[in-house]
Q: What sequence folds into this?
């Protein structure tokens, strides 16, 4: 068990300082994940904060065998989905991506083309790709 996961279980037992360490250790991962979910910059702070509030409230649901990073990022993913549902952004994002792909097909750089391909993947595959290839998670963690 890694030290962050150990801190998560200490937090479950009421150690608030341990939860602070969990937040400090995982906040960067949560922010990067939210950015890859195509959240607007102004919304990332809100979604990150909501993610950690949900994690704190859900400490009682922890079970052994889970890693902290995978648990927190699952909460982040669900929080992003809820955010998109509430704001109606999912349809707007899909349409914006389609327009962007159509308008830049001829002059897209390799980076832009790769991002477009990632964003066009079905959500479950996109999340897995981002977590493994861009954020360094193992397949077991994902």
A:
């Amino acid at each position: 068990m890694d030290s962050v996961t150990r801190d998560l279980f200490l937090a479950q037992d009421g150690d608030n300082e341990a939860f602070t360490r969990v937040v400090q250790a995982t906040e960067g991962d949560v922010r990067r994940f939210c950015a890859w979910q195509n959240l607007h910059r102004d919304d990332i702070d809100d979604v990150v904060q909501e993610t950690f509030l949900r994690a704190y409230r859900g400490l009682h649901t922890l079970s052994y065998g889970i890693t902290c990073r995978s648990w927190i990022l699952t909460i982040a993913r669900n929080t992003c989905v809820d955010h998109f549902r509430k704001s109606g952004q999912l349809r707007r994002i899909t349409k914006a991506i389609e327009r962007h792909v159509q308008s830049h097909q001829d002059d897209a750089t390799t980076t832009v083309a790769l991002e477009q391909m990632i964003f066009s993947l079905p959500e479950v595959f996109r999340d897995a790709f981002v977590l493994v290839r861009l954020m360094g998670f193992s397949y077991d963690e994902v």
Observations:
- The helical segments are 3-12, 16-36, 41-57, 68-87, 89-103, 110-120, 123-134.
- The radius of gyration is 17 Å.
- The mean pLDDT is 82.
